[in-house]
Amino acid sequence: MEEMILDRLSLLSHPHRLAVFRLLMRRYPDAVPAGEIAVILDLKSSTASVYLSALCDAALITRHRQGTSLRYRAQPAAAGTLIEFLFTDCCRGRPDLCPGVIPMTGDDCMPRPPRNVLFICTGNSARSIFAESILRDLDPGRFKVFSAGTHPASTLNPLALEMLEAKGHDTSSLRAKHIAEYQGSDAPCMDFVFTVCDRAANEDCPAWDGQPISGHWGVPDPAKATGTLAERRLAFQQAYGALRNRIEAFAALPIDTHDRIALQSAVDGIGASDLEGTSA
Predict the structure, then answer these.
(1) 276 pLDDT more than 70
(2) What is the distance between the alpha carbons of residues 56 and 50, in angstroms, rounded to a whole number?
(3) For the whole model, what pTM was predicted?
(4) What's phi and psi for 190, nearest 5 deg?
(5) Confidence class of residue 278 from pLDDT cuts 50, 70 and 90?
């Protein structure tokens, strides 16, 4: 076991291999094509392939073939093993010696409602706005919901607003916001943080205070749809439906009784599930 841990630590000591692993952790449970990884991290394809092979050999990530491309997925349990080894062996489990290491224990239950939930995408003009509105109206007593963008747009997408209003959501208070609004000392402490677009998940953002449970529920950008107005509206309908299906599954979780490990696993499962579709 110790030899395996040392091999993994040696691999991750290389900044570019670490960047690949961190990207796949942020995109988990997505399986990301090798070519996309190379583009995101500005690596040559051959170089990315070498790094990915090394991480696969160490069981830090897995790969499978889908069509003509190889796709790679992080193995969070492998990262957990590294942290557990360092905390137990190096610090002897003493938080006073390693205060920055706070293991996620199975008996740590979530606080009572309302829970703070943040949805993030790049522009905060459509997908994260959809998610904020859906969960806010679905269960306002249990959740206090926010959304933000890593590079927020100046205005909300008009087709997104049209879709929300058609679904009966109040859009009067909605606006595009930067994630910095939720990272200051006076910001609410988040219990859950979800990225709903791949581009936002690709970005290496600062860690959130309070160790919120996080998930990646990537949905294609409806604003990129082309064609007739009806075809573009259909793209927004599909994005709304996919997010509503995931959010309904999330809201149905027994948050009051599940511990953090069980909740994180459930959140990852929702992200990995095929819940695409339209919603009335």
Answers:
(1) no
(2) 10
(3) 0.80
(4) -85, 140
(5) very low
